[in-house]
Protein: Ribose-phosphate pyrophosphokinase
Organism: Fundidesulfovibrio magnetotacticus
Amino acid sequence: MATHGDLKILTGNANPELAKAICDHLGCTLLPSMVSKFSDGEIRVEIGANVRGSDVFVIQPTCNPVNYHLMELCLILDALKRASASRVTAVMPYYGYSRQDRKVVPRAPISAKLVADFLQVAGMHRLLTVDLHAGQIQGFFNVPVDNLYSMSLLAEHVAETVEGDLAVVSPDAGGVERARSFAKRLGCGLAIVDKRRDAPNQAKAMHVIGNVEGKTCVLVDDMIDTAGTMVQGAHVLLENGAKTVMAAVTHPVLSGPAIERLCNSPFSRVVVTNTIPLSPEAQSCEKIKVLSVAGLLAKAIHNIHTESSVSVLFNKTS
């Protein structure tokens, strides 16, 4: 039984289509609200219905423009807090600043931790997210964090659409655990592309560890940003005898030259989810296939609201 009042879903401007899809799964409607700009660029937030004593879920990935969508989210959380909502859960399918989770150079911020502080001060009681870049970010919060995995969704698509001998490939050493779990789910082999990063958003793929000759390779990662690493990885795999190469990625950040690179890449297909909405340019790329996480998030929201187990949805093979 729910102990935090009626379930209500609210969205900012980051991904309203995903919010509507989640509502369709839950059989409810979006809470009326206005999230707009004043003439000077400041954000204006007004909640259009009573939320006193309610269990409110705010759907808002902090994707590009990251700072604007983060500020939107914080102002929505503050408005709900001041309107006496019983509990407010921030549903951030994509957690912006997640790659800045530690100090890699002197005198640098730990931005992912600062974002966690922002959200908690603004009035968030709980966080629901998908495929955090670093699982340790959960420790930056003093409230419950549910980190869901899109692996089952992506793996199911690969299993249903790809025939022949498969090999799951991690584009770097840091993603080996994710790729190993993906490979175990598909019952296939694992390989790694050895990579040397020379500067932020720039990487040079070196060689392949593992057997990929004659196989359909699936490059697996949590996000695809400028696509440089992924495209270089695809070329290296083909040079090492791979039959074809596709990618399975959760978050389509797709900044800078990413879309052009993917359209001109040797990938047969790039499968992503809708944690981040695709730009019109990305939607026009025939190689990009989008899967919806709305059902997964809707189940998590239902379980959180009814005080049921959320861990049954993690579905992560170790």
